[in-house]
Write a structure and sequence with these properties.
alpha/beta; Rossmann fold; 10 helices
């Protein structure tokens, strides 16, 4: 097997490793001679439910037993219930809980996986409650907003809050100051079990593709295409990129936002 200098001998914690982007990323890392500690509800080295505080602590405790780590890939998410709990609070708890272990690595790296859904209009009160760390208030506020279509409207909000949290945390002394690169990869629509509901109904598929076209690569994308970017950002070869929300979405974000940020 060919050795990859940016990966060989490094230990990666990958949440959501049993399927989708997480599974594709874990497979690529193993091909590149990295050690992977997979985390998921089942079918992984570490089994934990990130939608609950106890599950999040269990993940940190179990990973700690493995010893030193070099990268944390907070990929777990999706679903139709517990969206804020898993996609925001679970991701942040994973990153913060494992940060002390990361800081012991000579080249520590971390990535959280977001989505182009983070571009959708969001209830700012819910986003702010997430950023304030008030899980109960965030969930209650989400459930009380009928315009969001109930709890399932929380996916894009959770991802928007996650983007903002990373942007705030990445340049701080706890992360960049400790030599830890922290970035977001925001995925477009890819062919994963979590997105299966989109493809099960032709009308839904057409509506989603029309609303979020992916002119480069097509619709849907492949999980391994997103995994390639995640792998590089968390390799020892990444020496200068942190605090970025990078869209791996076939051009969907560029089509939606244009040059807004540069005006």
């Amino acid at each position: 097997m060919t050795s990859h200098t940016g990966f060989a001998g490094r230990t990666y914690v990958v949440t959501g490793s049993a399927s989708g982007i997480g599974a594709a990323t874990a497979a690529l890392l193993r091909e590149r001679d990295a050690k992977v500690i997979g985390c998921d509800l089942d079918g992984a080295e570490v089994q934990a439910d990130l939608s609950t505080p106890d599950g999040r602590q269990s993940l940190v405790d179990q990973v700690t037993e493995y010893g030193p780590i070099d990268a944390v890939l907070a990929i777990a998410g999706g679903g139709k219930t517990g969206l804020l709990e898993t996609n925001y609070f679970g991701a942040v708890a994973t990153l913060e809980g494992l940060r002390p272990l990361l800081a012991q690595s000579p080249a520590p790296r971390a990535v959280a996986v977001s989505s182009t859904s983070s571009l959708a209009p969001a209830n700012e009160r819910v986003v702010q409650a997430c950023l304030d760390g008030d899980e109960a208030a965030a969930v209650a506020c989400l459930e009380a907003d009928p315009s969001l279509g109930g709890p399932t409207g929380g996916y894009g909000i959770a991802k928007r809050a996650l983007n903002r949290w990373v942007r705030r945390a990445a340049p701080t002394s706890e992360w960049a100051g400790a030599g830890i690169a922290l970035n977001v990869v925001a995925s477009g629509v890819v062919d994963t079990p979590a997105a299966a509901w989109i493809f099960a109904d032709e009308a839904v598929r057409t509506a989603v593709e029309t609303a979020a076209p992916q002119p480069f690569g097509g619709f849907p994308g492949r999980p391994e295409w997103v995994a390639e970017l995640i792998c590089w950002l968390t390799s020892a070869d990444n020496r200068f990129v942190t605090g970025q929300v990078i869209f791996a979405d076939g051009g969907s974000e560029a089509a939606a936002v244009g040059d807004h940020h540069w005006r």
